[in-house]
Amino acid sequence: MQEKLVSVIMPAYNAEKYIEKAIASIVGQEYKNWELVIVNDGSTDRTVEIIEKYVSKYPQQIFLYHNEKNSGAAVALNNAMHHATGEYLCWLSADDMYFETMISTQVDFLEKREEYDAVFSKCVYIDKNDKLIGGWEPEDYIGRLKMPDSKEPYYSLLMIGNAFNGCSILAKRSMFVETGNFDPEALYATDYDYWLRFAAVARIGYYDDFNVMSRRHSEQGSCIGENEIYAAKAFENMTRKKELMERLCKKAGYAYTRETIVQAYLSRMINAQGKEKELLVLTRALEAYLTEKGTV
To answer: Residue 23 and residue 259: Cα distance in Å, rounded?
Structure first.
């Protein structure tokens, strides 16, 4: 049977230190019917030179596009999605890597499990030198994921925060089309904002293995301390998308009511204890929600 085409999208900005390893991890996949769509987001280092070396070697599979200026990850991701043609789609950051089984195992999961539109897996964390520094493997959460008719990860997205590493998601491209564009205004919570909306429309499964190497280093935007604040703002924005919020609540096992939204805010505020700025954003958002007319 012909393998279905998988599009891997990759935004790249001044990624010369790591992007060659990221691209090589796609080239080395067990699954062979892939395309890699890279958007250069105004890089000023050797990023484009490195990419072009691979484009010349794999001209039928690796494609490079350019933003006219540095516009942020969301704009680059949207540009890449626009050019992607595969039936399945996944996103790899230019400083991360896939295990060689990433695409094959997760496509196989979706081909065999028709009840799902998307699937995510576990990841390991590596440092700037590729040294293993930990792994994402929360025992209680994964235990709930494995239960029949599990409400995870919808519950976690609704009540706690991000429920998976975004680069571990592989999904039907139609789900990305239905979800729409990444939001440039979400900034350091670009992924969380997107997965909140994505989870409302897609049926998400879990593959119990490690398929992504997620890099942690000081140059990442998420390391500057603003990601949690923007995540709180992303949730506030989500509460105003009533149709999506109703669908997410239902998947998480809750009725779409005013009490559920308040409970979600309070749950997040408990988890934000000790994080003064995030707690302030959540508190103000809850106060605004309680005073708005026409809310659930």
So the answer is: 46
DSSP H or E stretch at residue 78: helix 73-83
Instruction: Report if pTM > 0.85.
Output: yes
| 8 close to 34: Cβ distance less than 8 angstroms | yes
For residue range 114-169, list pLDDT tens digits in order.
999 999 999 999 999 999 999 999 999 999 999 988 999 999 999 999 899 999 99
Using CB atoms within 10 Å of the CB of residue 83, give its burial: 0 to 12 exposed, 13 to 18 middle, 19+ buried.
middle
Degrees to nearest 5, angle at CA 189 with 144 and 159? 35
Contact between 129 and 218 under an 8 Å Cβ cutoff? The reply is no
Residue 280, phi then psi, degrees to nearest 5: -65, -45
Which CATH code for domain 6-224?
Answer: 3.90.550.10
How far apart are the C-alpha atoms of 32 and 83, rounded to whole Å?
19
